[in-house]
Design brief:
The chain is an alpha/beta fold. The protein is about 40% helix and about 25% strand. It binds S-adenosylmethionine. S-adenosylmethionine binds next to helix 1 and helix 4.
Length: about 220
């Protein structure tokens, strides 16, 4: 088995597709239920897009919600079991099974006006290649929304510096196995990465968790330059 962290991310999602579908569809993840789903939906709504690319769409909840608002969506995800679940729940929807490496190598063949990444960017070099490819898929003014773990909350006791971290399913039920490593980025690193790839930060949103008082996520809203 590969020990390359980017490959381990993909294999972990294959392993955990079924419990993930259950967790999302039964609203078992408190921070999503209380905060982060709404944060992403309201950030999208504020930008009034007509065509949204949901990168790392998972089982498709965000595409389904947006399609309910009349927005055309395109969901892309590498995990076949998740894409299949998305298609079954939304047969008229547009879902594609593709990993970010393959996506980044494509010549853009359609345009969207907003790209949403909801807790779907965990890699290092692969993420850098993906971000470099994204501006070409965006019609101007093109928006990019990235919701991710808040670095100040997720840092724990380790140094506040970019690095691969061991994964954990703490707080998830026992059906989850083989957590994948993930690449920790500081806030400065996220902003630098966006700027280096032709995006300008529009807003930095830190939605508070009502029970902990800490940010439930970091939501970066950027625009293609
Ligand atoms: C935490 S889930 C989030 C799914 C969805 N965005 C949501 O909000 O429920 C992370 C998703 O990212 C996808 N993903 C991770 N790395 C990927 C890659 N390299 N290429 C494509 N999809 C990837 C996984 O398959 C998984 O569906």
């Amino acid at each position: 088995m590969s020990t390359d962290p980017e490959s381990l991310i993909l294999s972990s999602w294959q392993t955990n597709a079924e419990p993930w579908i259950t967790a999302v569809r039964e609203a078992r993840i408190e921070s999503r239920r209380l905060v982060t789903d709404h944060a992403m939906l309201s950030a999208i709504d504020a930008r009034r897009p007509q065509r949204v690319l949901d990168l790392g769409c998972g089982e498709g909840w965000l595409c389904r919600a947006l399609r309910g608002w009349g927005i055309a969506t395109w969901g892309v995800d590498a995990t076949a079991g998740l894409v299949e679940a998305a298609r079954i729940s939304d047969p008229e929807g547009d879902y594609e099974c593709l990993d970010y490496a393959a996506f980044s190598q494509q010549t853009p063949h359609r345009q969207v006006d907003l790209i949403a990444c909801n807790f779907s960017l965990f890699g290092a070099e692969e993420l850098e290649r993906l971000l470099a490819a994204l501006p070409a898929w965006l019609e101007r003014p093109g928006h990019l929304l990235i919701q991710t773990l808040h670095p100040h909350v997720a840092c724990g006791d380790e140094p506040y510096a970019d690095s691969w971290r061991a994964g954990s399913w703490a707080g998830f039920d026992a059906a989850f196995r083989d957590p994948a490593p993930w690449y920790f980025r500081t806030l400065e690193s996220w902003v630098t990465l966006l700027h280096a790839n032709g995006f300008r930060l529009d807003a930095l949103i830190e939605p508070p968790h009502p029970l902990t008082g800490k940010p439930a996520s970091l939501l970066l809203a950027a625009r293609a330059a």
